[in-house]
Amino acid sequence: MIRRKRIFDSLPAALLVGILCSGLLLQTQWVHSQDQAEKVPPGVASRADPDVPPSALLTDRGQALAQRLKQLRRSMETMGPRHPTLQDVKQELADVKEQLQAWASGADSSIGDAPITKAELNDQDVRQLLLRIVGKLNQLDRRVTRLEAASGS
């Protein structure tokens, strides 16, 4: 009976396979980390953008608009001046900027100066903001309770 020799029976072959697998794993992790470095959360990357007010980043819709603004700008950079859809992209870019400015005008004005219009906030935005406010209020309430218990009041 002839016994076949397996490739992993010899130490040099096993080391070679181990080194190749490790190299492949390291390369895969490096590529993944580079992809993750490019994918910055919408709120973080848009904070430096002067067209995106910080108040717009409080809601999902505002974050989506900020991301769309970034995508449209990137599209415009790749298009030539005679591209057939350039005017449509410019129009959509202007519309997104206008929608984002609704948050800026609402944040800059003091309470009671200008009424909030329906274009600035929809029901879903109000619900999201309300949930965040309630969450912060609950955190503050727990903190006050702990401080009162610690001080013995």
What does this molecule look like?
The chain has 153 residues and is mainly alpha-helical. Helix content is 68%, strand content 0%. The longest helix is centred in the last third of the chain and has 29 residues, at 123-151. It is flat and about 80 Å long. The termini are far apart.
Looking at this protein, list some descriptive labels.
single chain; 153 residues; mainly alpha; 68% helix; flat
Low-confidence stretches: 42-47, 108-114
Computed over alpha carbons, the radius of gyration is: 27 Å
Main pleated sheet: none
Question: Would you report the number of β strands?
Answer: 0
**Shape verdict:** flat
Q: Percentage of helical residues? A: 55-70%
Distance between the termini: 89 Å
The number of helical segments is 5
What is the strand and helix layout of this fold?
Layout: H1 11-38, H2 42-46, H3 60-78, H4 86-108, H5 123-151
Helix pairs in contact: 3-4
